[in-house]
Amino acid sequence: MHQCTITLKSPIPYHAPSSQSHPIFPHNPRLTQSQSHPILAPICTRAHSVFNSTRGLDISAPKHTSNSNSNAINGSVHDLKSKSVGVKDIDVATLGNLCVDIVLNVPKLPPPDVHDRKAYMDRLSASPPDKQYWEAGGNCNMAIAAARLGLHCIAIGHVGNEVYGQFLVDVLHDEGIGMVGMCENTNVDSSSASYETLLCWVLVDSLQRHGFCSRADFSKDPAFSWMSKLSEQVKTAIKQSKILFCNGYGFDELPPGVIVSAVEYAVEVGTALFFDPGPRGKSLSAGTTEEQGALSQLLRMSDVLLLTSDEAESLTGIENPISAGQELLKQGVHTKWVIVKMGPRGSILITRSSISCAPAFKVNVIDTVGCGDSFVAAIAYGFIHNMPAVNTLAIANAVGGATAMGCGAGRNVATLEKVIELMKASNLNEDDEFFDELLNENLDVQAIKSLSKLVIKGSENQPNCVSLQKVVSELLPKLKLTHLQKKVPC
After folding, report:
1. What is the average pLDDT across 105-121?
2. Which of 170-184, 247-261, 475-489 has the lowest mean pLDDT?
3. Does the keyword Isomerase apply (predicted)?
4. Is the pLDDT of residue 18 over 50?
């Protein structure tokens, strides 16, 4: 079940809204230096990548047809530098956490002892598995899900110049996603293990339980500890992006100082920061001084924080997820949204003046790997397009749910067709008692909105009730427009 893959044979072209205000996609005043997209040329041919024998992957970009009036969707950083200052042509850039997942069925999960786990992983690594078991992992999940929603995405990170690195580059380009390499240190031996693409062994036992192993688990230092600063190429990519997405797993690869540099530069150039600490948030809060400082910086300076209820509690000590979100808002400097992911119960979006709740969609869950990453991609979609909070949660729940209906992450995250199908079905997993219990506490907010399928007579006049039918009727034209644009032949 976890080994099925869906390989896209052609890249997904990106079609941006026109420079005029679009009736379906209004401009977002949340975005500093907000600029509309230029019309970008669709990608018609397979991507290529550029490798350097001493520095690994620097830049990779899909090939595109020459057109004096258009730009490449994923042009090189050289192309980005030629654009006028302040124009943000990229919707989402992901930072680090690029890895290849090796998904295997095993009779038993790895043992808990660190030394035994290391020996277990070494035995697996001794005989590289067939390519059918490889999948793009880490931040590739978020980037692919975002690209399938029609967002223009790039991945900033490091991959080695071996077969695994080439595999990742090919997968990203087949999805229409550009790549900016992070490599400034020319003294690093490109043949050393510390330079290789990070592999994550995703192990599934007979009970469908998951175990994970990677070389980052067995070192106190990040996998790419030789990195010390951001290259000018990376800075340009951040500057040209509306959103920079970071997650806690980025600390497994990148030194805290490099992550802080990216955060500070994003703030400087008006790029919105999205941060999902994930399970690493708890360990980072008790980690080294540098890790604690970097975590604090991310929590304070991010525009949007995304956490599960358990993660929110571990960072604040507050059990109620709404109260925990409000505490994170108080501690934040730039924080506009705190979003709490509640799994099958749905999600909550908290601002300084409002709370929005949306139950999850009912789906036949096959695999939850990649659901959180897909959810984040849709939150970015709503943020960029200035959607109402409830609408943003609804599409995020749909994208996360559609991913859960498939097998694994990477190229198997939600397709636009599945998202549209799920929203049309409009089958919510409503749990009014659960949300009422959360909201009945003394919460100092001006507005509370909740998504509901059942429309009781007169409820549409109540400010705290938003009809699912109304939300779906507003979202479907946007999604269908994107779907139609993806089908336009080159």
Report:
1. 88
2. 475-489
3. no
4. no
Q: Give percent of the chain above pLDDT 90.
A: 55
Token pair for 396: 């995020």
Backbone angle region of 278, left / alpha / beta, with phi > 0 → left and psi within -120 to 50 → alpha: left
More confident residue, 456 or 14: 456
Residue 379: is its pLDDT beyond 70?
yes
Alpha-carbon radius of gyration of the chain: 22
Model confidence, pTM? 0.81
Percent of the chain having pLDDT more than 70? 77
What's the rounded Cα separation, in Å, for the pair 440 and 456? 21
The CATH superfamily of 40-487 is Ribokinase (3.40.1190.20)
Gap between the Cα atoms of 166 and 174, Å rounded: 12
Measure the CA–CA gap between 117 and 430, rounded to whole angstroms: 41
Rounded to an integer, what distance in angstroms lies between the CA atom of residue 415 and that of residue 426?
A: 17
Q: Tell me the per-residue pLDDT of 249-284, one tens digit each, with 9 for 90 and over.
A: 999 999 999 999 999 999 999 999 999 999 999 999
User: Beta-carbon neighbour count of residue 93 at 10 Å?
Assistant: 28
Count CB neighbours of 112 within 10 A: 8
49 in Cβ contact with 174 (< 8 Å): no
Check pLDDT > 60 for residue 485: yes
Measured distance CA(278)–CA(455) in Å, rounded? 35
The end-to-end CA distance of the chain, in Å, is 35
349, 324, 327: which is closest to 339 by C-alpha? 349
Going by pLDDT thresholds of 50, 70 and 90, the confidence category of residue 341 is very high
Domain ranges of the chain: 40-487
